[in-house]
Every structure is written in C-alpha cells, then in structure tokens.
Amino acid sequence: MDIRYLEDLLCSAPKGSRSNAVAAPSPKRKNRPRGGASGDNGGIETNKRPWKRAGAASGPFSGLSLCVVSQGSVTNNTVGTLTREFRDGGGQVSTHYTPGDTTHIVADASLAASWEKLDDYFSGWDDFEDVVDGAATAGRGRMPDGVPVVSSEWMSECLRRSEVVTAEAYRLTPPLHHCAAPATVAPKQQQRSSTATTETNAAAEGCSSSASPAATGKKRILTSGGHQTTGGLVATRNQRGDAARGSPSGRGAAARLMNLEGEVGARKPNVDMRRVSQGQPSSFWGPQSPNKEAADMLDGLAELCATRGGDGSVFNERGFKSAAAALRMLGTQITDIEQLKDLRKNDPERVRGVGDGAMKELTAFLAEGKGKSRAPVSGADPPAPEACLKLFQEVGWVGAVKARQLYDKGMRSIEDLRTSGRDLLTEQMRVCLNRHEDIKQRMPRSEAAEIEAAVTKVAQSICPGVICQACGSYRRGKSNCGDVDVLIRPPEGQEDSPMFLELIKELTETGFITDRLAMPEGPYTPGKPQTFMGVCKLPGEGQIHRRLDVKLYPTSMFAFAVLYFTGSGDFNMNMRCFAKSKGLKLNDKGLFKVDPFSGEEVPNSGYSCLREEDVFSALGMDWIEPKDRKGVGPASHNQQEALPQHQAIPMAEAGSYYENAEQQMQQQQQMMMQQQAEVFFREEDQVQQAICLSRGVFDASGGSVAAAAAGGGGAGAANYDGSADPDLQEALRRSVADTRFAVGGGEREVVAGGSGSTATAASSAEGNNGVGTGSEHSPVCL
DNA sequence: GCGCAGCTATG
DNA sequence: CATAGC
DNA sequence: GCGC
Ligand SMILES: O=c1ccn([C@H]2C[C@H](O)[C@@H](COP(=O)(O)OP(=O)(O)OP(=O)(O)O)O2)c(=O)[nH]1
Ligand SMILES: [Mg+2]
C-alpha cells in the first residue's frame, strides 16, 4: 500500500469553492471490523509483585530514589500502583525532586511525550501541589541535569524483572524536535464541548470512580469534567508478561497465585485474565503517546482501507489499527526501525499487532524524517478521489461501493449529490442526505435522555408496563451519543401485541419521527424481535434531527438484547468470540450451544438468562460495567488456544477430540478454582469484589464449580451423540480461559435450561443497583 | 492458508 | 446475493 | 493486516 494515498487523503484541504467538498472529519465510521482498540480510556490497572508483603528496605530497589512526576491523582493511577510496588521492593519514591538524592525522574504518560511539558511541569509545580501528600516544591524552572528522566515503562520493567534495569532504553529524549505540541491543552482545562466529535466517558462522576477506593480519600483530579488522562498508568505490556513469565521466586499468597497462573501460562502464555473491559491500553498513553505520529499514520492507513473498500478491506483496516494501537502502547519512542525489529524479536508481546505490513509502512515513514509532515501534496483542485470517497461515505448508507459509483458518475461533493445525484441514491441514502448536517453531529447525553423519555412516554401510553431503555453509548455513560438506541420489552405475555408498529405510527404522527430508514419486514410474527431505524426530532425551537434506533424483544431475549445493544461493538465482538471459544454462540437473542460437528446452533440449547449478569455468569465472566465495555484489542490477539477455531470437527478425529476434552477437564477445573481464588484474594480487585458482594453473588459461587452448564434444554441437546455430551460441553466451556475476559466465579446461579424455564430465582432482587451500571437509568434488572 | 461476531433490512 | 449498518 |  502506498503511503501517498494517505497523503492525498489527509492533505486535501476543504475546498474553497465547493462548500461541501471534503469537509471536516466526521465521526461516522462504519462497517469496521473489530477495532484494534480505539480511543477509550479506562480504569484501574492492577498488578501484584511477588515481594509484595516482604519487608521493605531490602528489596532489589534499595538505594534508588525516584521522583515521580505525574499528572492526575497519583494514588489512583498506575504510577501509584507502580510506586507502591516499587517501595515494597525497597526503593524510595516521592514526588519531590531532591538534588543529590533523586536518582531517577519518572514521567508519566501525560508528560512523557514532550520535554517542554515536562519542563513546564517543573516550573508549574505549584499547580500540582495537591498531588499526593506533598506540597511539592521542587526544582523550579529548569530541568535538573544529570538525573535520567525515564518513562514509567522503566519502572514497569524494573518491577517485572525485579532488578534495576538500565535507564538508557527508557530515557526520554530531550531534543525531540518537538513533535507537534498541538496547541496543547493545559492539563488543567480539558473541558470539551459536549457535542464534540469524540465521546468521552464523562458521566464519570456518575458512573465511574465510585468504586476506586484509593480515589476517595484525598486527591481530586485535576480536570473538572470527566476525561482526565488519568495518569492511568499501567505496567504497559500489561501484566500478562509480568506475571506469567514468572518473575523471581515468589512468596506470599499473591505470589503463589501468580505462579499458578504461570503454570497455566506455560501451556497458554496469554493468561492475562484481568484486562478486558478495564484499562484500555490503546489510550493508555493518552493522546500523547511518544509514537503518536507513527500510530496516527497507521490509523490513517486503516481508515484508507475502509474508504477504499474491497475484499478484505475490513480486515486490513483492523490490522493497521491494531498495529497503531500497539505502537501507541509503547512507552518509548521509536525513532529507528531497528528498535522495532529488536522488539519484535526480543519482546514480541509488547509489539503484538505490528506485523510485516505495518513494519513496511513504518520503515518508509521513519526513513523520510518523521517530524517532517508528509508532503502536503494534494489539496489541489481536482479533489483527491479518496477524499471524495470518504466524504460520500459520511452520508448514511453510502459505503465504499456506492461512493465509488458516485465518483465515477462525476459526483465530487455533497452538493453535487443534492443537485444532480438524487436519483442515483436509494431511499435510505436520500433520507440521510437530507438530514446530513444534523445527523452527522453527535448529541449531548442529556438530549439522548430526552429522546429516550419521549419514546418511553408514548410506549407506555400504548402499552402500560412496557420497559424502555436507551442502550448504546448512552448506557455506557458517554457524554455524547451518535444516536439513541432504545430497547423495548413488552410486559410478559403481551409479546404478541402489535404495540411496536403502533408506537412507531404514533411517534410519526406526532411528528417526532421524521424519517424511516428501516422497518421490520413483512408480516409480523409474535415473539420475534422488531427493529425500527430512522430519524427523529424533539419538539421545540433549535432542535435538530437525530438518528434513532428502536428495537423490541420479548422478555426471554431481553437480557441478551440489552447486552448486545449496549455494546460497544468491539466489546460485543470480543465477548462473542470468547463465547465461541467455549463452544457457544452469543447473539442478541441468546446464548446457545453449537454442535461442534456441524457448527450449527443446537436447537433448544439456549441458556436462560433474565439479567445481563446471568449472561456473564453463564460464560464464567465477571460482571463488567457498561461504562467499561470497551473491548481490548482484536480478539485475534487472544486466540492462542481457542480450541477448534471453528471448523467442524471431522468424524474421524472425534474420538481423540473427546478424550482430549475429558482429560482437560480436571486441570481446567483446577484452573477455574485458581482463578476464582485469584479474584477472591487479589486486593486490586476490590472493585469487582465489591460489586459481586453487593449483588449477593459470592455466596453462591464459593468455589463450587458446580451446577449450571449441564445439558441445555434436555431436548435437542445432545443430538449429535448423547454420549459425552455434557462433559464435552463442560470441557469446552472451561477449556479456554483466554485473555479477553476475566473468567471468574464459575457459573453461579445461572441455569442452563430449555429456553422456557424461568431462570432460577433471580437471586438478589436489586441486582443492578451496584455501581453505575446506569442503574439510575435502568428501570429493570438488566 | 485459515479465521477474523453475528445478525438484519434493502434492492 | 451484495451492500450497509447495528 | 495479523496471529496462529
Ligand atoms: O458492528 C456493530 C455495531 C454496533 N453493535 C451494537 C453495539 C453498539 O453499542 C450498539 C449500538 O450501535 P451504535 O452504532 O449506535 O453504537 P454506539 O455504541 O451506540 O455508539 P454511538 O454513540 O456512535 O451511537 O449496537 C454491534 O454489536 N456491532
Ligand atoms: Mg448508538
């Protein structure tokens, strides 16, 4: 792939004459593959060191005195975590720079990328005096000399190897011809318009931190609004490597756990178990990864793949994205392709996602003097074709193919489409074109709430007892939403009412719904989910059109539907992949067994889950808050032993397959227990624990790997051979504990029954009112 | 060389 | 079936 | 395109 395409794409400026041509970037991004981790920022990173409880002062780090320069709450971010670990290892860590004493300065993510910033940091220290417990008054003005300034990766590495690693490789490079410090936002005011093009999780107060114990105490975060680049430090190449790759001889419970994990890891290197929802590594370094430019370049290529479309483009897009994400995760700046080659050879884990394709692009990129912005080639009069394609695709329902057709017919701008292209478009495209200026904007969260309420009101008037819930980015707590995704559940027993069509009709007649993009097909079948997609507008002056999706599901599917519709898309992909690796199929209607021979869904094998939580449990997963449902990296990165990648198992090999499965069972069970224990004991998992406890779930799981699982809905279950079935399935279910999700306390109260069976006593009545699942918005146990 | 989530509506 | 979107 |  030629980089010049990218240049064309990126550099073509908005045309003066043609008002609508090549406009500002729009949020629209469709038809993507699974994302290689996008830009979310997540939570709490955890990690344990073997010497944890060992007496301090004599660890591997005695004699070191670090000055940690961090932005955000140090106690809460990962630097904080690293700090504690480091102290446990005998090192000294403070936020003060003490000439003559300080041996290393550690800069956190937010400061690592720019020397100037770091310098500012030292001069502006006063502003940060509430960081930790010190009126930090350090070397004002200039950067101290002689003391190495390193990225926090250095700390991670030291901790990982439990020895003092040379600082060289982690030194932050001073000269740094200053890669774009783009009108850098002062750390203090990071406010952003609520209708920005990027969503943040800034319902933060409401739904996030509630559970982070360390946060409560003293420090408040610097930024007022949500989004702090929370010094959210992590042991970058996160824990997995650290833990499994068994560090030194461990002691203590924690260490034991880790070693056990290591054993498992011996067979399956990737037993991270903790990641997933939480820390979103890709943005770990925030908007200022040392490799931002290179990563952006790769992301640009990804985008380019998408706009050009074609066979496999979806996967190309994903590929570039994951390479970009990997690069962003690197704490050290790559200035020479050789550095990457080394990493790929010596520490492949850290650069997972960067393959030959990306290497090729990076070679070219680095060669041509990175800082130097790529030739501002185009921007010329004939708009770059790619730019046009991209522009057209910002209109709903116009994809790569249609965009090219339009281009071939001479269209060059939105305006062209409006004046002479209308009859080239489908009805859906016409609607989206009409409303384009409105629809392309994201709406503030509050407006999404109003829209939800508007729908709810009418729905309830038509069908008392109905439940409506906005899902999607709204339920994930985002501060702005691209559309509103409303889910509807009629009261049980009324699944056959025509309320859905009535609702749409009513909303249309009142003028709330202005356009229809898609409606359920044909003759309507009771008990079947129904979907409306369209455009709506709240009454009143100054309101603009918004995309609205409404879906109705019967009660038996509702939990699955909520899970699906809450997303994120990446999260769904990962979770479904995980389910698949266990021989199951998860979709918006249920969780089913899959016949390993045919690859088909086993009839009547659906698990009965009335609440979202039941679905997590059924998969052996710990609950994940909606706000944390981000999905980490492509599932392919975790695929390692995902059993039959899905090909049906040939009859001939069935025997050995079963044997294998059976064998695995024992050790798998053990593994399960370990994990349970891990979750139970690991203090960093207080969050999860708290949630579990509050849900009254823990009692049910006390080690009992029991129950559940078993034959799905008796009937159609084992139709490919009753023999080893439940066991096989059990084995399948347990066999893959991959890194996508923390696999926790067994099956708990879920029951795998025929789809009909009203799931077991839905244990805790409250269920959802834990931390911010958006419970305040959820009228029902989800 | 294979698989990459799983599904719906439109034309 | 291909395309686009959730 | 990436991992296996
Ligand atoms: O490829 C996809 C796209 C979406 N979804 C699910 C998850 C997603 O959260 C939900 C709603 O889709 P939407 O496109 O509205 O995404 P969102 O998460 O709500 O973000 P936005 O704020 O852009 O609407 O549908 C998927 O499972 N797969
Ligand atoms: Mg949405």
From TrEMBL:
Its cofactor is Mn(2+). Residues 651-678 form a coiled coil. Its EC number is 2.7.7.7. SUPFAM superfamilies: BRCT domain (SSF52113), DNA polymerase beta, N-terminal domain-like (SSF47802), Nucleotidyltransferase (SSF81301), PsbU/PolX domain-like (SSF81585). GO terms for cellular component: nucleus. It catalyses: DNA(n) + a 2'-deoxyribonucleoside 5'-triphosphate = DNA(n+1) + diphosphate. It is an enzyme of class 2 (transferase). Gene3D superfamilies: 5' to 3' exonuclease, C-terminal subdomain, Beta Polymerase, domain 2, BRCT domain, DNA polymerase beta, N-terminal domain-like, DNA polymerase, thumb domain. Belongs to the DNA polymerase type-X family. Residues 195-205, 757-768 have a biased composition (Low complexity). It comes from the Eukaryota. Residues 15-56, 184-252, 748-782 are annotated as: Disordered. GO terms for molecular function: DNA binding; DNA-directed DNA polymerase activity; lyase activity. The keyword S-adenosyl-L-methionine does not apply. This is DNA polymerase lambda. It comes from Ectocarpus siliculosus. Keywords: Coiled coil, DNA damage, DNA repair, DNA replication, DNA synthesis, DNA-binding, DNA-directed DNA polymerase, Lyase, Nucleotidyltransferase, Transferase. GO terms for biological process: DNA replication; double-strand break repair via nonhomologous end joining.
